[in-house]
Every structure is written in structure tokens, then in C-alpha cells.
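F.,

This is the one I mentioned.
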């Protein structure tokens, strides 16, 4: 995998994104067309109509991103409504389909880390892209996600990072769609601005955003249309899978987690406590080992395709990310971390430019 550099105005960034990944974006639309039909009984035309209800919310909370979505559509030769629908896919489908994903924040020896596996449908594996976005009105950022979407998991040049855990819930109210909110977080200059996306703008459907900063701060935000639940670090760590457990969130929102979510969370807590020394150096390799764990498989942290599961529950790890926010370095393994034989590393340097390397 390589990184796609995008720069300029919102429109220019969008058009370059659309041109560079037109084929993958079209494939993503096909994947979600099938998913919407399978999970919520909507064909693509109906899903486009559903996505329209989120347009006023984006116009209120983040109008500039609509210019970029329009640019993506033009660059890819698609309609704006197609790109809007793709970026609202969580709000349309996660009432019935929940992703996997295991994420953690770790502060050790003065270094702030964020890391996660992103687990989703196998047919999205080759539609994953790495984007380096340098706009005129926001910090430069790296986003790892699905082609045609404005953001997912990543960090910016200020050392702000974010991870994502899906939450299955029937709640959907007023606020920014999840992936639009993630992009606004990635354009934040500091932790206060990051938290404000969740507490002021709000997020229209539940998810967990794990945020961190280069100066050693981290928090879990269980977002939804109300005041988000917040999880503070314990012994320098915050961990999360796919259920709500902040008291202020789960008393407001009902979720329907997969049965393995709590098991994976307990395993993640144990691994961080038992495998990582309190003193001494920790690097990306040690954190990727944790993300490669198969305890309890097939319902493990590193997930492999399991044909014995119901179709709506079949998913596998599609990529893994480890971020050293202190050094503003992100390392990506595309595919399962236990199988990847190469990684992509992107680092913002002293000149605030990003340099990338591909290593075995």
C-alpha cells in the first residue's frame, strides 16, 4: 500500500481523492449497496434518500467538508449523493451491523501511543486507502480508511490522533455523522477542540472515539447525540472494543454488542498489563504483537474469516494501526497484523511535512 498525497482547497483535495481512487470508490459503493440491502432492506436509491436527512446536520456543524465531498464525487465521476451516502454508511447500517475493532491508548516512558485493529467485511479489504491531506485551513493529517470517505483513523501534524470502535445501537439523532466527526477531530489543534466535537457538535449515532495527543493526554469518548461518556486512563491506558461502559453514556443509550466484545476487552487489558514492562523501551513491534493475539479465536483480537458465523457477523481484521503521537509517527499494516510482511510508516518531521517509508 502507498500513501496518496492530497493538497490545496477543499475542492481540490476532494477532486484529487476522487480521481486517484475512482475505481475503489465505485467498489465501495457496490459493497455498501449489498450491505444496506442485506442488513436494513434498502437499495442504493433508498439509502441515498436516507442520507439526505444528515445533510442539514453537516451544513450546521462542518459545512466546509461538503465542498470536499462534492469534489470527491466530481473526481470519481459520481453524484454528490453517492459520496454523502458512503460517508453516512454507519448511520444507515449500524442499527443492524456492528463492526469489530479492538483499540487502546498507552502512555509509557513519556510516549503516548494509540493503536487498533479495524475489523470489517472482507470485501472492503482492497478498498482501504491511506491519505495524506494538507489543506489551507487545517493541520496536515493522515487518515487510514475507506476510499471515498472523508476520514476514519489517523493523526495530524499537531500530534492529535483518533481511533474508532463501532457500536451497534438503534439510536440516531442530531449531530455529525461518525466519519464526518472523525475528520473534524483530525483537523483539531488540541485536545480541547477534539473533545468539543463530541460535546458541542455531538455525533448523531453512537460510536467510541479513542483520542490522544503528543503531550501525553488520552481519553475514550463514547459519543452519541447527547453528552458523551468519557473514559479516563487507568495506569496510563484506555481500552475499548464494541460495547458502551462509561456510566454517563450507557444510562442514555442502549447498545447491542456482539457477544465477544467484553471478552476481547478483558483480553486486551490482560495483555497490556502482562506483556509490556513498566520500564524499558516499547516500540511498534510490541504493540503489533498485542494486536496479533488469537486467544479465543475465531472471536479474537486478531480476527480471521469464519464461515461458520452468520453472514451479518462475518468479518476479519482488514488493517492495524500503531501511532506514536509523541513522535508524530503512524505505522500501518494492511491486512491482518499476524500475516503482514510489510508496513507503511508515515511521520511528520520538524518541518511539519510528512515522510513515508515502506518496510518489510
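My design for it:
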Amino acid at each position: 500500500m502507498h500513501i496518496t498525497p492530497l493538497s490545496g482547497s477543499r475542492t481540490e483535495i476532494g477532486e484529487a481523492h476522487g480521481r486517484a481512487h475512482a475505481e475503489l470508490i465505485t467498489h465501495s459503493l457496490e459493497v455498501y449497496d449489498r450491505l444496506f440491502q442485506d442488513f436494513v432492506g434498502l437499495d442504493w436509491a433508498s439509502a441515498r434518500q436516507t442520507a439526505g436527512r444528515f445533510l442539514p446536520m453537516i451544513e450546521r456543524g462542518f459545512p466546509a467538508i461538503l465542498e470536499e465531498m462534492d469534489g470527491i464525487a466530481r473526481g470519481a465521476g459520481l453524484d454528490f449523493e453517492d459520496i454523502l451516502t458512503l460517508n453516512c454508511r454507519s448511520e444507515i447500517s449500524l442499527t443492524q451491523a456492528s463492526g469489530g475493532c479492538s483499540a487502546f491508548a498507552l502512555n509509557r516512558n513519556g510516549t503516548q501511543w494509540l493503536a487498533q485493529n479495524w475489523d470489517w467485511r472482507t470485501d472492503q479489504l482492497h478498498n482501504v486507502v491511506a491519505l495524506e491531506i494538507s489543506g489551507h485551513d487545517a493541520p496536515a493529517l493522515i487518515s487510514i480508511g475507506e476510499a471515498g470517505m472523508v476520514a476514519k483513523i489517523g493523526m495530524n501534524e499537531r500530534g492529535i490522533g483518533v481511533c474508532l470502535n463501532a457500536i451497534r445501537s438503534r439510536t440516531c439523532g442530531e449531530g455529525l455523522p461518525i466519519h464526518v466527526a472523525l475528520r473534524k477531530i483530525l483537523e483539531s489543534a488540541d485536545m480541547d477542540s477534539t473533545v468539543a466535537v463530541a460535546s458541542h457538535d455531538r455525533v448523531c449515532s453512537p460510536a467510541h472515539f479513542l483520542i490522544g495527543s503528543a503531550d501525553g493526554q488520552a481519553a475514550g469518548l463514547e459519543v452519541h447525540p447527547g453528552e458523551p461518556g468519557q473514559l479516563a486512563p487507568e495506569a496510563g491506558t484506555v481500552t475499548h472494543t464494541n460495547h458502551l461502559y462509561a456510566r454517563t453514556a450507557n444510562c442514555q443509550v442502549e447498545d447491542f454488542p456482539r457477544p465477544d466484545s467484553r471478552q476481547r476487552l478483558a483480553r486486551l487489558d490482560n495483555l497490556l498489563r502482562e506483556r509490556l514492562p513498566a520500564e524499558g523501551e516499547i516500540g511498534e513491534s510490541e504493540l503489533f504483537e498485542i494486536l496479533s493475539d488469537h486467544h479465543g479465536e475465531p472471536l479474537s483480537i486478531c480476527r480471521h474469516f469464519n464461515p461458520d458465523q452468520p453472514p451479518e457477523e462475518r468479518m476479519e481484521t482488514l488493517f492495524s494501526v500503531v501511532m506514536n503521537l509523541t513522535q508524530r509517527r503512524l505505522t500501518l499494516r494492511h491486512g491482518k497484523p499476524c500475516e503482514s510482511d510489510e508496513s507503511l510508516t508515515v511521520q511528520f518531521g520538524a518541518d511539519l511535512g510528512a515522510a513515508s517509508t515502506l518496510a518489510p
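Residues 287 and 322 are 7 Å apart (CA to CA).

Talk soon.
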